[in-house]
Structure prediction request, 691 residues.
Amino acid sequence: MKLQLKTKLTLAVATGLLALGAIAQETPADGVYRDRIDWGLLMDMSGPTSASQAIWVNGFQDYMRRVNEGGGINGRKINVLAEDNRFNAATDKIAYEKLVGQTPVIAISGMGTSASQVALSPTIRAGKVPIVGTYTATKALSEPVSPMVYNGFCGYKQMAQAGVGYYADALKLRAPKVVTVAIESAGGKEYHDYIAEAVAKLGGTAHHVTMKVTAVDVTPQVLEIMNLKPDFITIYGVSNSAILTMKALAQYGMKTPAFGITYLGAPAIFQAMGPQAGANYNFISCFTPGGADQSAGNREMSAYADRIGRNGMQADINYVSGWITGQMAAEAIARLGANPTRARLVESLSKGFTVDSKGLAAPIVYTPTNNTGPVVFKLFGYDYGTNKFKAFGDYADYAKYTR
Amino acid sequence: MFGQVLFSGLALGSIYGLVALGFTVIFKATDVFNFAQGMFVVLGAYLAVTAISLLGLPFPLAILFLVIASALVGAVIHILLIQPLSGRPMLSVIMLTIALSIVLRSVIELTYGPQGRTLSTPLPMGVLVVGDVRMSYLHLWAALVSWLCMAIFGAFFRFTSVGLLMRATADGHEAAVVSGVNVNAMNRVAWGIGTTLAAIGGLFLGQLQIASPELETIGLLALPAVVIGGMQSIPGAIIGGLLVGVIEQMASAYISPKSSDIVIYLLLLVILMVRPWGLFGQRELGRV
Prediction:
């Protein structure tokens, strides 16, 4: 049967319109396709910081896996493209360019290397791909506020304020004497400065004791701490910084209370310290480790991690952080409706939003003028009887310290 | 304070000495400057985790497992990787050990995951107080076992027929071959011993810290130790290890933690410039 010219033309136009419709929903340059959206991660999955950052990646991926199992977002699956920075700013730059142009993504999360953040800050701020949920918050990237950057991890300033405030109240100290034990790094110095600032507000004094990141024995540092006789100690560094310090303090019979930064809250750290040294150690965090309470968010996350065989990984604060950043990313995409693009994502984020993780953290509020991210903290310790974390109070009790 | 810092430096230096001894044994036998020695330390820590935590072996059996497994790894590495490169330029072999180190790290991270593992042994954890000096039993054990290992391997080289053959091989490959010594077998034994010594160091470092691939950096402190002590000298490796440990702790206590690297590598530079064969090495003389 021969088709009339008019019918042929009608069919051709209809086919063209259908194709255009499909194209309208697919913007590969933004990482958006008909059936999926590409979302990038830039994290150290090998190298010295991989022990914490690779777990954060697991948390993020698991949240998205759960979203995809539920059918995705508005009919699209979320495809996570995770790039390994290898603790190297140069690798980070190449990976960033790749996610912007070669295998484009709608947005990027993570950026765990502070040196990379500093190096890439001008490019990111002037670019079109937003960083949604940074793993570490450097001043260079996050100040002044930019619609391209949203911090996703606990900030050092608030860690210092909440930790110092809590210990000063709990120990009833008027002018606390505090020692910061920190690895020799720019971050360690910055953290000590925040501690000194918080302690000075209470009329106290803060001393800075440094150690090597690869230290095996911290006898000199502990002897210095013994001379200083602080009311409490705070620790900044890697797992070993906390383990060695607390073990050595116990060796010298010192029972000075100590708290570590959020990153030093892994179960393996407490287990390596043992009950004697670990009894005096807590960590300050804006996230609740899996299993530490029975909030709805904690139950959901823990059940899912158990179901997919994460073998207790949810007790690691990095996993929780990755999970919450995954939620932040998924909700940001969902708000865009059927036609997400990078530009629409940036526009939507810049108006402000709140991430309610149902108890895994206090609600995280972003406004057009404040992208600081999590600002409410609390202290966690470890119960060696049950091998679970225990919280000291509620997030609301600590809000006064970081207000 | 001085006595306390000196003790902690000597305890730490004993572990460095043990790892350095393994390095020297391999270098003496096969002329291979083994950059994978740091990863052998990591391997030891993870073998201990496997035996104690994963397999649940009693501690003496776990140690036996560690020794046998690490010796096997060393011998297999020699058979598969080092022996085929025999006679090739030094640079090729060095590149191979660097590649080996990277591969080992990746395999360990893939097998055990990125998280560090807690290594708990039944070794006593208390403190011995002697005068003003407080010594942790773990440090004492680490030092004692390191010295015991050094003594055992020293006696092995000096008093056993295999040790004699190994020394003969190290002194002159061609002469050993002509005399009917199975040079490849001797080199395999050397790699097995070198790996085992590093693995025992890893057992203690893994317990002092946690078992993680980052122990490699600490294991690599054996390199300045052997250069300072003398690449070919077994006593030199031990003394070099002790020196590195004491310098690290003294510099950390009296200058700053970061200065310890400067002091150690400054000493290494001075040694290389003034006495390149090390404090206890022998100057090589060649006839023209």
Remarks:
- The two ends of chain B are 54 Å apart (CA to CA).
- The interface with chain A takes residues 1, 4-5, 8, 11-12, 15, 105-106, 109, 113-120, 125, 127, 134, 136, 139, 205, 208-210, 212, 214, 217-218, 249, 252-254, 256-258, 260-261 of chain B (CB under 8 Å).
